[in-house]
Amino acid sequence: MLVVKNDAYGHGLSTIATAAADAGIRSFATSDLATGLATRAVVPADTRVLAWPTGERSLLADAIAAEIEIGVGDFELLALLIDRHATRRTRVHLEVDTGLSRGGFRPDQWNSLASTVSAAVTSGAIELAGVWSHIAEASDDDDDDARSRYDEAVHALTTAGLTPGIRHLAASAASWARPEFRYDAVRIGAFAYGIRPAGGPDSATLGIRPIARLLAPVVAVDDAAVTVAVGSRDGLFSSLAGAVDVATSAGLRPLREVGAEVSRVGSWPGARVGDTVEIFGPAVEPTALAEAVGTIGEEVVTRIAPWVPRTTALSP
Amino acid sequence: MSRSRLHKWLAAMSGDHVLDLRHDAWGIGLERVLPLLAENPCAVCVDAAEGDRARAAGLVVVEASLCDNPLVARRETLKPPVIRVLSRVATTKRLRAGDGVSYGLTWRAKTDTTVALVAGGYAQGVVRALGNRASVLVEGERAPIVGRVAMDVCVIDVGSRVVRSGTEVVLLGDPEANEPPVAEWVSVTGLAPDEVVIPLCARGTAVVVP
Questions:
Q1: InterPro entries per the record (chain A) (predicted)?
Q2: Is A295 domain-assigned?
Q3: Is A109's Cβ below 8 Å from some Cβ in B?
């Protein structure tokens, strides 16, 4: 499953979903329902689109009508879906809490969950399309415990006579490092965009590379530095100033200042207005910027403001 | 965004202030902000393509270069308490002592407690560095953000309180009402006030309240 939430991690939902569908991907996942609907609008009809809304209800009927499968982790939403009296059965993915303590049914709820869902499936109100969870990735031992709990949850459902549908537990990191976590599907976000884990294996080891570049045009040149048109208001952390290098046509140069609207980068011979500087991309990975300021590459890419233009180029 | 707070604040501004409304009024939406400025016309700085729109609303449009020059103008912006940043509780969950929360299990409950899942994570501008280091306001009381902030959600500890799903959560607002001030996020993250506020406004939906 390709995860396309938050405008495909800031890359542009329609571009990414269309390209992925062209490449044969037939399974997409997102959190909010609006993104689910926007994905549905650009992918072929036989494509699975899963959304797991966080408290959001207003688009629920539209999403179900558009055959978006719904991730459900609490009895309130589950009851809402069962009681809809819709003409079409809602396909649900039950989220179980295996130790992350965020969304998802807790272990002490699994037996009552199994009986509720069993009755609703029998009556035709819903269809069980999947069972899923998030793991904490604190350590392999913690994740092994989470996987055991996940198996217990699936067992509780099958014991009640249910067929769990698609079982999905792993996101990028575990899908790569822990084959036993793959089950029927994996949810790939970061790695699909070429974003490696902070402090983890490098991109060459993972076989990935960033698919996006943040390119900033040079708008002024003086002896000390060039001024480029990207600033902290565009989502570039001001804390990166003095902490990282960025890529120019003459090689890496220090990112000296990050202002509100513009930033300053170490100059090079022949630098001209109209040149571009790669703030992040294959040369300086988003995760490298993230590591310099104590965060992860996903935050660096999703922070880039919606008004920064996204363009698509075919590259080798 | 509060209309009355905006007017009070504009009235207190002196003549050499410039209201910075670039980036579509910080993501709030010029179409929402410009009508509110009719009663207190002031000097503004807007995105390059929006000058005519601002002038048509009766405002003096100042060049961006002047707006950025602290010697020429005092730049002011639409940060709290003129605006408040709100979210809602999605679900709540009882935890037992020792239960961990969110990626990396960086926080564990010291006693049995209740946590609430709140919509809003780092992709919506709730800076990831705030996990375990900041708090929000829920029904008049502060509640700490516990564990790592995720891409779309964060978790808060509401202790022994009973909080219903749908309850309003104040992420940023007026410190006089015990709402978290921008200064708290600035102090935790080391970021500037505008870069804290703009991503939240750019991803959220702004409404004007009295």
A1: Ala_racemase, Ala_racemase/Decarboxylase_C, Ala_racemase_C, Ala_racemase_N, PLP-binding_barrel
A2: yes
A3: no
- Is A209 a domain residue? no
Q: How many domains does chain A have?
A: 2
Partners of A5 on chain B (C-beta within 8 Å) are 123, 151-152
Q: List per-residue pLDDT tens for chain A, 316 residues long.
A: 999 999 999 999 999 999 999 999 999 999 999 999 999 999 999 999 999 999 888 999 999 999 999 999 999 999 999 987 666 789 999 999 999 999 999 999 999 999 999 999 999 999 999 999 999 999 999 999 999 999 999 999 999 999 999 999 999 999 999 999 999 999 999 999 999 999 999 999 999 999 999 999 999 999 889 999 999 999 999 999 999 999 999 999 999 999 999 999 999 999 999 999 999 999 999 999 999 999 999 999 999 999 999 999 876 4
Looking at chain A, how many residues does it have? 316
Contact A305 B199 (CB under 8 A): yes
Its pTM stands at: 0.96
CATH number 3.30.1330.10 is the correct assignment for the domain at B85-172: no
How many CA atoms does the CB half-sphere of A168 hold within 13 Å?
Answer: 21
Shortest Cα–Cα distance, B101 to chain A (Å):
5
Q: Tell how far CA A16 is from the center of its chain.
A: 12
Looking at the structure, tell me whether residues A186 and A250 fall in a common domain: no
Q: Identify the domain containing residue A257 by its residue range.
A: 214-303
Strand order in the sheet with A27-30: A2-3, A27-30, A48-51, A69-72, A90-95, A126-132, A166-168
Q: Nearest Cβ partner of B23 from A76, A298, A307? A: A307
Q: Is A298 on the interface with B (CB under 8 A)?
A: yes
Residue A294 forms contact with B (CB below 8 Å): yes
CATH number (domain holding residue A299): 2.40.37.10
